[in-house]
């Protein structure tokens, strides 16, 4: 059986940042409508749906709210990498003919819920199963990332200033993004002098908390001719899960992207050094650094030196998180879908003045990678995309 090519044909964000009046369902709907409008396709072509994180029977509740009756569904939930993993599943389903057009949607009012007292700022994953052996010792999600960062610093001499430079470059990229929540420039000293959250992370080492949603529409190649936008092809994907307890993580300096990334590149038939732009999950600065290593953009232990001297800026050697990332643009929870949206916009040349990456010939990028991370480096999904 011939496998069909799969393209991303529509992307969009909902209103993001400070959205006090909308419900998560409304943000799902807003993002979905905008992504369909972006594609130029009608709702009737959508026969696949993927969603996680909302509703008692996700994604059935959200599909019903959107007026969809999909014949293919996915509710895989593996944290922030959920959306790259879902995109992989959707691409496989479309290629095999099990669906024609799959809509991925996410929306969250994480910030507004805290402001209104509907939830607290602490995220608990419970104390059942393997986690029961760590919870009594007070391991928070951020503490786990902080421990991993400290291990990398110990092993390879990575400095807190190098980690801080990641936050500085993310903020500089956000400056040209009208949808970014924070756009004022910051310095390494600003990052270092902030309140300590979990050593070595001060506040600006950590992602922001925002409201917002995103949607991505994938479709089979025969639908591309009916779309209003240039297709962005799914070239290769990879996924991997590593651990849930820190005691079962063999090496704190290696993320699951070390598996998902090479698999995605191999399936795409490209090398890391051919990639023009990278969108990487950045709930904390260390995530960016170690993922860059594990995707093969630099050798293990060289991430600290790699991120220095503006290499991650929009005009740098390897533009990373060109929208400002979770550190400055928006982070309403499981942010992986936002990575795909930004990667597609960059490949289409639609990122806007000051933010659009240009390659040597002055055109838009040809290859992009979106790599999501879930839990505390528990899972990874990597998607390689190419311009049509």
Series of secondary-structure elements, N-terminal to C-terminal: EHEHEHEHHHHEEEEHEHHHHEE
Fourth-level CATH superfamily: Thiolase/Chalcone synthase
Beta percentage is 15-25%
Helix content range of the residues, please?
Answer: 25-40%
Overall geometry = globular
Q: Architecture, CATH level 2?
A: 3-Layer(aba) Sandwich
Query: How many domains in all?
Result: 1
Sequence of strands across the biggest β-sheet: 3-2-4-7-1-8-11-10-9
Compute the number of strand runs. 11
The total of helices stands at 12
Low-pLDDT segments, ≥5 res:
none
CATH class: Alpha Beta
Terminal residue distance: 24 Å
| Average pLDDT | 95
What integer value in Å does the Rg equal? Answer: 19 Å
What class would the helix/strand composition place it in?
alpha/beta
Question: In this structure, how is the largest beta sheet organized?
Answer: 9 strands, mixed
CATH topology: Peroxisomal Thiolase, Chain A, domain 1
